[in-house]
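Students often ask why we bother encoding 3D structure as a string. The short answer is that it lets us treat folding as translation between two languages. Here is a chain of 296 residues written in the first language.
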Amino acid sequence: MAFKLFNYNPSLPAAIAFAVVFGLLTLIHSFMVFHVGFKQNLTFNSGRKKRLCCIMIPFIIGLVMESVGYVARAIATQNKDSVIVYCMQSTFILIAPVLMAATLYMVFGELVKTTDTEKHICISMKYFTKILVAADIVSLLVQAAGGGLIAMDSARKWGKIIVIVGLFIQIIFFGGFFVLSILYTIQVHKHAKRHISKYSHWMLSFVVLFVTSLLILVRSVFRVVEFFGGYDGAIASNEKLIYGLDAVPILVGSVIFVFFNYSRLLCKYQTLNDGSDFLLVDKILPSEEGSQKESY
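And here it is in the second language, the structure alphabet:
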């Protein structure tokens, strides 16, 4: 019996639909970054502006990879024997959320620094983001290496093991980040509620971050279960389940980020550390005083 790359008949309409939607989300998020970076009349340090815009770059690259991955998947539906196309769609879709997670780490770090609430987190912010991003990079490289091997019948077993290791690295550090961020939010709400009340939408910003993080975490756990089940397992053989617990959670998280612009929100916050690099002047324009209540 000839070896098959797909253990089911992949859907062309589904692949095209997700490729288009992720492509549109890429354009929307790119425009939002451009809008904050170059079009807003906010007065703040130019270096700070670049940093706040750059935190969304990994997320946008992740969206590009999702879109390209589903384009490759659409091509693969018409050419089921192409190992190159299969590897491309498999690897891109597999590692895209890792890049998105990097943005979540950086957003959390900037929220903590900008609101001057570092004392309420149990780890030094000097190393917090660096450790998580470093772990993210390792996870990405490991998963990419395993994803490339999965398409080869002779190396499929090792490819599966390598991908699982990469996913476990992501889950361990991402899960740790999720728990730590929740503990931090509880501590701030308990001990610095009055201080944090000056920052509009602070609690909502963390709720959005938690929901998006949970979606990525659920997706990562699902992929581990999928790979443990094997190529012929019930999950790996069910395309609807793969779309429902892989593509959909990432899509929902990406849409949520459209309605909550973190770059713009961070640019509206004013740190209490006077004279530091994080000083953002909230006096946008004299004529705009009293009209700062904007939706995100």
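Translate back mentally: The radius of gyration is 21 Å. Keep this in mind for the problem set.
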